[in-house]
Each structure stands twice: as C-alpha cells, then as structure tokens.
Amino acid sequence: MANAFVHVELNTTDVDKAKAFYGKLFEWTLEDVPMGPGASYTMIKVGQGTGGGMVKHPVPGAPSAWLAYVQVEEIKAATEKARSLGATIMQDVVEVPGMGWLSILIDPTGAALGLWQPKM
C-alpha cells in the first residue's frame, strides 16, 4: 500500500510511567536510544507489525497523546501539499540523523499526523 502507516509515537508527560504500563500490558521490547545531552528516545519493538516509540512530550502542558506517522516519498513536497490543502504545520521538515526526515501537521479537522521519509 502506498503511504502506509509506518510508526506510532507516544508523546507523553511521563516516559517512565508509560514504559512500565505498556511494557507490562503488551510485553513490548523497549530500547532507549540517546538523542543528545540528557535526552533519549524509547524505541518500541513489537516483533511483527508497525513499531513505534515513546518520548517526553515536546509541548509543555500538552496531554499525552499517540501520533501516527505515514511514509511519503518526498517529505518536503508532501508537507507543502498538506499545507496547501489546509493543514497547519506544527513541525516543519527536520532530519533525524541516520534515520530520515519527519514533519508533523494538524489536518483541517484538528487531528495530528506525522509524515516520514526514511533514508534510503
């Protein structure tokens, strides 16, 4: 399927509490990956199917929420197309070193969605 959902990320107010809950609930394998001084990203490895991650919510005061990512072929073009169709761009295209690029948008109905272009 073109433009499949490829990653699901929990932006949470309490990473440790989320890891304890989801690790026990689903028996997911959770692996912390350093992201720079004092920061880390928890990869969710589910075995089969779409995996994901957990990270401290980047928006102060915002509630914890899951964010789905859709894979695109050309992230800059897809982000601009979303904007032209009425999306608000919350995070413009940014590189995830060694992995790919992402952007985050709010669609015209208010739903958040991530776009992802992997490095090939």
Describe the structure.
Strand 3 (40-45) and strand 4 form a beta hairpin. 19% of the residues are buried. Strands 2-3-4-1-5-8-7-6 form an eight-stranded mixed β-sheet, with helices on one face. It is of the alpha+beta class and 120 residues long. The model has no long low-confidence stretch (mean pLDDT 94). It is globular. It has two helices and eight strands, in the order βαββββαβββ.
Mean pLDDT metric: 94
Mind telling me the C-alpha Rg? 15 Å
Q: What is the CA–CA distance across the termini?
A: 18 Å
Percent in helix: 10-25%
Strands of the biggest beta sheet: in what spatial order?
A: 2-3-4-1-5-8-7-6
The biggest beta sheet is recorded as: 8 strands, mixed
Structural class: alpha+beta
* Strand percentage: over 45%
Could you give the order of the helices and strands?
A: EHEEEEHEEE
Beta strand count: 8
Q: Count of DSSP helices?
A: 2
Backbone shape: globular
Oligomer description: single chain
